[in-house]
Amino acid sequence: MYRSDPAPDPEPLPAPIADTHTHLDIVASGYPVDEAVVPDPAGPEIRAIIDQAAAAGVTHLVQVGTDVASSRWAAALAEADDRVLAAVALHPNEAPLLADLDSGLAAVDELAALGRVAALGETGLDYFRTDRSGRAAQQESFRAHIEIAKRHGKTLVIHDRDAHADVLAILDEEGAPDRVVMHCFSGDFAFARECARRGFHMSFAGNVTFKNAESLRGAAAAAPAELILVETDAPFMAPVPVRGHRNRPALASHTARFLADHLGHDLEQWCERLAANTRAAFGDWRRDAL
Q1: Ramachandran region, residue 143 (left: φ > 0; alpha: ψ -120 to 50; beta: rest)
Q2: How many CB atoms sit inside 10 A of residue 161's CB?
Q3: 268, CA 20 to 30 Å: which among 59, 114, 150, 180?
Q4: pTM attached to this predicted model
């Protein structure tokens, strides 16, 4: 799936940023996840990945859960390392597979009350991998996550694949939380304008650097600078110039550099802008601020 040799360490950024969406459990164990080899969230292997990111200027991370087990792992990592906040959720492709969706949602609700859990995510809709038979369960789960996020005062992190209209319709019907992040933004110019009109943050991953991503780059140009975030979605979608390697948080620096160049921003000022945007979207990483 990935090249066997690791991507070279990137040049450090001139000012620190955050990787707003990563899966360090999958970075370390591979995909599909083998629960038997997922490392201790407080152990040296995970700490080394976070240290490598910090050396590249990616000093803070949001570790994202996709089911109950990975959400618990995310919460444990955030508790173990002050550079990490957690997002907890049932992934939209997970929801139709659960024999007891209510039990899964109850576990997510319990985790959402924890102080180092900043967000509910990644939730949303995925009409690419789930066919029509599973969409009712996805939508039920999405609506429940919106309610949990609002009740706990947490950010909502949305996975949206081939479902733009329904994602916006459900958010409009339910009433969006105060802070919404469109993870791995995949829409076009018009969709970016609709998200901006609602005040949603748009998080761009390594695919914005790909040769065939002209529409995505148009969306980035349409997004207000104060609503843009960067992420890796590691281990997936490593950016150019390291495409094909296993992604990791340090490589978010390439995406930040690319967007600064594409949008005509001074790199240091752009990094400062991204850091401010991340605080607006997720809050402060300091324990005394939570």
Answers
A1: alpha
A2: 17
A3: 180
A4: 0.97
In a domain, 51, yes or no: yes
Residue 67 belongs to domain spanning: 17-283
Tens-level pLDDT at each residue, the chain (290 residues): 788 889 999 999 999 999 999 999 999 988 777 777 889 999 999 999 999 999 999 999 999 999 999 999 999 999 999 999 999 999 999 999 999 999 999 999 999 999 999 999 999 999 999 989 999 999 999 999 999 999 999 999 999 999 999 999 999 999 999 999 999 999 999 999 999 999 999 999 999 999 999 999 999 999 999 999 999 999 999 999 999 999 999 999 999 999 999 999 999 999 999 999 999 999 998 875 54
> Is 9 within a domain?
no
Angle subtended at Cα 198 by Cα 272 and Cα 202, rounded to the nearest 5 degrees:
40
How many distinct structural domains can be found in the chain?
A: 1
For residue 226, the domain's CATH number is 3.20.20.140
| Domain assignment present for 201 | yes
